[in-house]
């Protein structure tokens, strides 16, 4: 038998096969876009240390009832007013912090019956077991928004000169940190911590009553 | 002159499709890489609440816990909101061991940075969530992310 050249494989159907696979992966792809509110839970503390006494004026209580209505500082409030109320409370600056410094950057009304200093101001939220999760998330969102707005304002005041072209300074700083997560930028971290220290997030959650 | 004119008479040559497989393969590889196959099918209704102060989730260090009412085909077992972990309904007391197991399976240097992603239906009682949070506190998994849809700020 004479030696024959191997016939060439027809590659014409290659595109069809590839298309088939492509369509399969197109259909099954869900590009993940999970986002959410990041919060830290308090660790369980078994020690019997007497909890420090917190002055009533430094405490901003938010209660969510089982029908989803809000009770803020023992008054009924609409969800849309909560953010501003929380900002007013945190930003009041009526007194001094633990070190005896008064809040120089606060722009609040400096009322004597509201918070002394953002350092001391604590927001406490409590909900019923029957409260819908949606309402609970709305409240969390509004309170986190209050902190974010104040931090944004302080970042604007302190670090605007380094970020002249961005819309929101604090967001830009956090994004930059995220981008450089493998090469730590000490200066940037210090600045972020400085803003967080001016407006510390003190948001406590009480356990719902067991009844 | 006639030398050049000759060519114009012919029909347009067919466009070569030889590079089509290459293009398609390129797209194919993109989608293959970007695809995340769902590893657990949801047995509960899961309409997430919405929020506008959201942060991005780091997928590599997250353990998901789902919560909500059982979906249509699982209605016969239970109609009250349940907790789902991976592929099964679990009780509140099982949250701790399950989470511990999941953290143990994570990459070692990420174990201390673990974030618990709570995907809870918006019609669930907040009581279920606080039960889960109690269990997480006992496990010392203190970073929690309430997963939400992004609401555009108005």
Helix-strand pattern of chain B, N to C? HHEEEEEHEHE
Instruction: Name the quaternary structure.
Output: heterodimer
The strands making up the biggest β-sheet of chain B line up spatially as 1-7-6-3-4-5
CATH class of the largest domain in chain B: Alpha Beta
Biggest sheet, spatial arrangement of strands of chain A: 4-3-2-5-6
Largest sheet of chain B: 6 strands, mixed
Question: How many angstroms does the end-to-end distance of chain A come to?
Answer: 94 Å
Structural class of chain B: alpha/beta
Biggest interface and residues each: A-B, 47 and 54 residues
Number of E-state strands of chain A: 6
Sum up the overall morphology of chain B in one term: elongated
Strand content of chain B: 15-25%
Beta strand count of chain B = 7
How many domains of chain A? 1
N- to C-terminal distance of chain B: 71 Å
Structural class of chain A: alpha/beta
Radius of gyration of chain B: 26 Å
Mean pLDDT of chain A: 82
Looking at CATH, which topology of the largest domain in chain B would you report?
Nucleotidyltransferase, domain 5
- Could you spell the SSE succession of chain A in H and E letters? HEEEEHEHHHE
> How many separate helices of chain B?
4
Detailed description of the structure:
The complex is a heterodimer of chains A (211) and B (154). Chain A has 211 residues and is of the alpha/beta class. Chain A has one domain. Helix content of chain A is 37%, strand content 13%. Chain A has 5 helices and 6 strands, in the order H-E-E-E-E-H-E-H-H-H-E. Chain A has helices at 14-28, 79-90, 133-159, 169-179, 186-198, and strands spanning 35-40, 59-64, 70-72, 75-77, 122-127, 203-206. In chain A, strands 4-3-2-5-6 form a 5-stranded mixed β-sheet, with helices on one face. Chain A is elongated. Chain B has 154 residues and is α/β, with parallel strands linked by helices. In chain B, strands 1-7-6-3-4-5 form a 6-stranded mixed β-sheet. Chain B has 2 domains: 2-34, no CATH class; 50-150, Nucleotidyltransferase, domain 5. In chain B, helix 4 links the parallel strand 6 and strand 7 (143-150). Chain B starts with a helix and ends with a strand. Chain B has helices at residues 2-9, 20-34, 95-104, 126-139; strands at residues 50-51, 55-56, 62-68, 82-85, 88-90, 115-120, 143-150. At the A-B interface, helix 1, strand 1 and helix 3 of A face helix 2, strand 1, strand 2, strand 6 and helix 4 of B. Strand 1 (35-40) of chain A pairs antiparallel with strand 2 (55-56) of chain B.
